[in-house]
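The pair is quoted verbatim underneath.

:::
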Amino acid sequence: NIICPTVTITAASTSLSYSFPEIGGSVTTYAVKLFDSTGNSELASQTPTGTTTLTGTFSSLTASTTYKLRVIPTAGTITKTDCAFTTGVTSAPPVCNAPTNVTAELTAQP
């Protein structure tokens, strides 16, 4: 019986980083899949790196957008595809403040 790991997500404006502890036992491989906010459309898949804590980052995402991640552990020929989604929301893009103390000199051209 394969258990599902608890996933932690850290969001930035255009990326979601994730981490989760290794399950152990006979689990040998993991896939992490990125879905849209409904969980119906798979957008990307990757293999996390690490030993006791597995990590990865999905980048080039849209700011202020909800995504869902699912870990899929595999032990031998058994793959657990029904682990719960973990939701992550990319943050808003950084605000670009208008410059201050700027002067300009205009000169008429003939």
The chain has a mean pLDDT of 93. The first strand starts at residue 8 and ends at 11. DSSP finds no helices and eight strands in the chain. Residues 5 and 20 are 6 Å apart (CA to CA).
